[in-house]
Design a protein that fits this description.
This protein has 2 domains: about 1-35; about 40-83, no CATH class. The longest helix is centred in the N-terminal third of the chain and has 22 residues, at about 5-30. Helix content is about 25%, strand content about 15%. By secondary structure, the chain is of the alpha+beta class. Strand 1 (about 60-65) and strand 2 form a beta hairpin. A two-stranded antiparallel sheet has the order 1-2. It has one helix at about 5-30, and strands at about 60-65, 70-75. The chain starts with 6 loop residues before the first helix and ends in a 6-residue tail after the last strand.
Length: about 80
C-alpha cells in the first residue's frame, strides 16, 4: 500500500508528466487540434539589391531586410534626376 504522505508527490509527478507529454503531442500536430495557422515557410522577396533593379535610372533600388521573411524591394525616387 502507498504511504499517505507520498500520494501528493506521486500525483504531482504524474500530472506534470502528462502535461509535458501532451504539449509535445499537440505541438507536433502543428495546429490540427487547435486550428492555428502554422507557417512552414516564408516568402523572401529579395536577397540583395541587384534583385530589386527596376531599370529606372531615377530611382535608388534596394533590398530591405535581405534574405529574411520580411525582405522587400524599396525604390527611392532621386530628387535631381535628368533622365
Amino acid at each position: 500500500m502507498i504511504d499517505e504522505r507520498k500520494k501528493p508527490l506521486i500525483f504531482m509527478v504524474s500530472f506534470f508528466s502528462f502535461v509535458i507529454i501532451a504539449s509535445f503531442i499537440i505541438g507536433g500536430l502543428k495546429g490540427v487540434i487547435t486550428g492555428d495557422v502554422v507557417a512552414e515557410t516564408c516568402f523572401v522577396e529579395c536577397s540583395n539589391n541587384t534583385e530589386c533593379d527596376d531599370n529606372d535610372p531615377c530611382t535608388l533600388d534596394g533590398c530591405a531586410y535581405a534574405e529574411t521573411c520580411f525582405s522587400r524591394c524599396t525604390y527611392i525616387l532621386e530628387d535631381d534626376c535628368d533622365y
